[in-house]
Every structure is written in structure tokens, then in C-alpha cells.
Design brief:
The protein has 15 helices and 20 strands. By secondary structure, it is an alpha/beta fold. Strands 7, 8, 9, 10, 11, 12, 16, 17 and 20 form a 9-stranded parallel β-sheet that branches. Strands 1-6-4-5-3-2 form a 6-stranded mixed β-sheet, covered by helices on one side. A 3-stranded mixed β-sheet has the order 13-14-15. The radius of gyration is 24 Å and the shape is globular. The structure holds zinc ion (ZN). The site of zinc ion (ZN) has 6 residues, from helix 7.
Length: 477
């Protein structure tokens, strides 16, 4: 479990919560008492020893105080998440009916802590695997799931053709979503609004909204039906999932931006950033009208900083970087200026000064440059102030966190537990993923970001995703 903040437990004394105990429920919450009773296999009745659930309005949303004596287990919290986290802690601590005597006072360091579930991926996660991941996420006190359904959502009616043969059924999806919500996990659906839409655009029914016919991956942002189709698909998902506070609209890696004749003209006159923002803003406005916060991947915003001047005020930013493994970092993701780079002196005069993980990451993903000469003037004009004082040797890790915040944006960090192939003794590069999640979490906590969602791509076994859950839980709590 994520390590609790303040722990004072006895090595010797224990409480034995057996059938002589009962739950005294003063939480004022509908189902919390029965969940504790079920966990201990005891009743909500009048036996002398108590599991006392006490509402304490002075505590924050996810905070709890657990006090264990030989005759009483007291849980204080203000809200359901606090009680649920206390129950998860009890589950980790207990040895059968025995609990160590002492106190735990606990609360998380980041408000949103989550994992991406790429239901659409080649692995085609099945209901049982998904639900096991959902339970594991909750056991480790995560509170959000970013779910990309793609063509595995059971679309109906006019868009029935989009649902693949392996789409989850409505009853399967219902069970997954209901269980996640019951365990306190917020569902954040991800519905791509421009690129990465192969699952949609491969169908001839959507030929008119393809940006180009050869690579059928991207919607044409100049075609009004693009927004309409996106809205209709999203509406089906929202109708099924139920109320959502946030929806992720994707928007990353729109590599065909400006390819069709209509978009090419607009890109030439108004700029690529404007072309992108105009479409994205329509999507954001559709969500804002429904009081849903739109979240967007940051890579296009970063590569085309002019986009920031036009972006809808409701848009929140999810900043992804899968290569940064330490702070300060020799590696810089300089979007729009050579991408992933490091100073070439790390290969000569500074050689030997890096950890094995960072060295491996540089060799696999980054390009050696003269970091004090090769960054473009346009890039430095926007971002220099955020890179720290140790250039060219190091940059401040994840420098764009404060850049987006300074522009008034709510920011979420997005490391990965399965992304961009590199290997560690033939296994996926778990040490890189672990360090990436750790440094991203530390920086998000330092910058007081809104949260962190660990991404999980690629065709890997579901068991590997549990590493992402555990690492995210530990480093964000
Ligand atoms: Zn176009």
C-alpha cells in the first residue's frame, strides 16, 4: 500500500476483531458501515467491542485517522473517500482478525491519482482483467481511471458500425463502471477529437471527414461534421457512463494537421496553432456547456506555443513525458526544437556521471546536441525561463509544468508504466518507468499540480499494469 504519512503502531499489542465485535456507524454515509462489517465479517449491532466510524467534518476529503486499541477500532473521516482509504489500510495491516494497536493519520499529496486503462489496445483487456485492475487501483488508494474505449465501446444506432467485434457488451461495461465508482474511482473517459482515430476513419461511412484518404487516422478540423461526429460518439459514452467531471479529448500527435487543401490554406493564413485550436475549442465548448472539464494532451500545445493564445479557457492540460528519470535531468523534451535531446558532452567529458537508468534512456531515445547552441531561438524565447540554471549540463525536470500553470492552466502529469519500448534484461524497462513515475510525482507535488495519471500503452500483459498502480500509488500519496 502507499506508505501512510504518520504511523505509530505497536510491534507487540494487537486487537483481535472477532465475532464479538460490532460496527458502530456514525459516519452518516449510506454504505460505509456495511462495507466495514463485511470486511471484518461482523455485524452492525450492539456487541461490546466496536469498530466506530466517526464523522469528523474538520478533515479534508481523503484524510482519515485510524486509532486501534484492544477493545476499539476508531476511524475518523469527513467523507466517504477517507473511510474507504482507512478500510484499505486496515486490509493491508490485518493478519486474519488481528490488527496492530496504534494510530495512523493519513492523507494524499496529490488530489487526482490515477491509471490509464487503454481498453482499445491490442491486448483487448477482458472484463475480468479490467475489474482486477480496478480493484487493485482502489486497494492502493488511487482515485481515478482514464479509460479509452475506442472501438470496444458498444456504440449503437447511427454509429453502430464503429463498435468492433470484440467490443465489450453493455452489461460487462456496466459492471466495470459500477464497481469502479463504488470503490471510489472517478471515471475520466478519453475520446480522441482529432488524431489517433483509425478505429473510426477506417469505415467508409466517415470518409468525408478524413484529413487524408491514404493514412486514415485524423479528422479534418475544417469539416464541421468532424465535431458533430465526435460529439455524437461522446454523447453515447457519457449517456452510458453517467455524470463525469472531466473528459479527456486526446489531441496528441496530430501529424496530418494542415494536409487537406482546405486545412493547408487555413494553416498558411492563420497558422497551424490556430487551425488546431479552432477545432479543439469547439470540442471544449461542447463539454464546457455540460459543465465537464476538457483535458487535452500537451504535445501539440508545446510544439506550437501560439496555440496557447487561442485555447479555450476551460481546457486543462495533461503533460506527458516518458523519458525523464531524474531531477535535474540531462534529457530535455524540446518539442518543436529537435525533440528529445541531451548535451553531447555526456558522451565524452562528463561520461560516467549518470545512473544506469538515465544512461540507458539517453542511448535509446535521445539525440546528442550542443544544448547551449542548438535549441532554436523561437524555442528559447518561450521556454528558457523554465529550464533552470544548470544548462547545458542539466535542465529542470519536467519544465513545462510551471509554464502551463503560469498561463492559468490546470495541469496533470502523465508518466508511463508501459510506453516507448526499451528493455531491462529482456523485461519491459520497469526501472525507467518507476523513475519516470517517481520524478513526475515529485515535481507535480512540488508544483501543486492537479494530479497525476500514469499511462499504459502497448500490447503487454495486464499483470504488468499492476506495477504502474503500485508505483503511482506510492509516489503520489
Ligand atoms: Zn482538413
Amino acid at each position: 500500500m502507499p506508505e501512510p504519512r504518520i504511523v505509530d503502531l505497536s510491534d507487540e499489542a494487537a486487537a483481535v476483531v472477532d465475532h464479538d465485535w460490532h460496527v458502530a456507524d456514525e459516519s452518516g454515509l449510506l454504505d460505509v458501515g456495511s462495507k466495514f462489517a463485511e470486511a471484518f465479517c461482523i455485524g452492525v449491532n450492539s456487541e461490546p467491542n466496536r469498530v466506530a466510524l466517526v464523522r469528523d467534518e474538520g478533515m479534508s476529503r481523503e484524510e482519515y485517522l485510524l486509532s486501534i486499541t484492544p477493545g476499539q477500532v476508531e476511524v475518523r473521516a469527513a467523507h466517504r473517500p477517507g473511510f474507504m482509504h482507512a478500510l484499505a489500510t486496515i486490509d493491508h495491516l490485518r493478519d486474519g482478525a488481528m490488527l496492530p494497536v496504534g494510530t495512523i493519520h493519513d492523507w494524499p499529496r496529490l488530489p487526482v491519482r490515477g491509471l490509464q486503462l487503454m481498453v482499445e489496445s491490442i491486448r483487448q483487456l477482458r472484463e475480468d482483467s479490467i475489474r482486477e485492475l480496478v480493484r487493485s487501483a482502489a486497494r492502493h488508494k488511487l482515485n481515478a481511471l482514464l479509460i479509452e474505449f475506442g472501438d470496444r465501446f458498444p456504440f449503437e444506432g447511427e454509429h453502430e458500425v464503429v463498435a468492433s467485434q470484440s467490443a465489450l457488451t453493455r452489461p460487462q461495461l456496466r459492471r466495470i463502471i459500477d464497481e469502479a465508482r463504488d470503490l471510489g474511482l472517478e471515471i475520466i473517459p478519453l475520446v480522441q477529437c482529432m488524431g489517433h482515430l483509425e478505429y473510426l476513419l477506417r469505415h467508409d461511412e466517415y470518409a468525408d471527414i478524413r484529413e487524408e484518404d491514404e493514412v486514415r487516422a485524423q479528422l479534418c478540423p475544417s469539416n464541421p461534421r468532424s465535431l458533430q461526429v465526435w460529439a455524437e460518439l461522446t454523447e453515447q459514452i457519457l449517456d452510458f457512463v453517467g455524470p463525469c467531471a472531466r473528459v479527456h479529448i486526446g489531441g496528441d500527435e496530430t501529424r496530418q494537421l494542415g494536409h487537406c487543401p482546405r486545412c493547408a490554406t487555413r494553416a498558411e493564413t492563420a497558422g497551424v496553432g490556430r487551425l488546431y485550436a479552432d477545432h479543439v475549442n469547439g470540442v471544449c465548448e461542447w463539454l464546457a456547456q455540460r459543465e465537464i472539464a476538457p483535458i487535452i494532451w500537451d504535445d501539440i500545445l508545446c510544439a506550437h506555443p501560439d496555440t496557447m493564445d487561442h485555447l479555450h479557457e476551460a481546457a486543462e492540460v495533461m503533460y506527458w513525458d516518458y523519458w525523464t528519470t531524474q531531477d535535474p535531468s540531462p534529457l530535455l523534451v524540446a518539442r518543436g526544437s529537435g525533440s528529445v535531446v541531451y548535451d553531447e558532452r555526456w558522451d565524452t567529458e562528463w561520461e560516467g556521471g549518470l545512473s544506469e537508468v538515465t544512461r540507458r534512456t539517453l542511448e535509446r531515445f535521445a539525440r546528442p546536441v550542443h544544448l547551449d547552441q542548438d535549441l532554436t531561438e523561437a524555442y528559447l524565447k518561450v521556454y528558457r525561463d523554465y529550464l533552470g540554471d544548470s544548462l547545458p549540463r542539466y535542465v529542470r525536470a519536467l519544465p513545462y509544468l510551471e509554464y502551463y500553470q503560469d498561463r492559468g492552466r490546470t495541469v496533470y502529469g502523465a508518466p508511463t508504466c508501459s510506453g516507448n519500448h526499451s528493455f531491462w534484461h529482456t523485461l519491459p524497462d520497469l526501472p525507467r518507468h518507476g523513475e519516470n513515475i517517481k520524478v513526475f510525482a515529485d515535481r507535480c507535488i512540488e508544483a501543486e499540480a492537479a494530479g497525476l495519471i500514469t499511462t499504459a500503452w502497448y500490447n503487454r500483459s495486464p499483470e504488468l499494469l499492476h506495477f504502474g498502480i503500485v508505483a503511482t500509488a506510492q509516489f503520489t500519496w
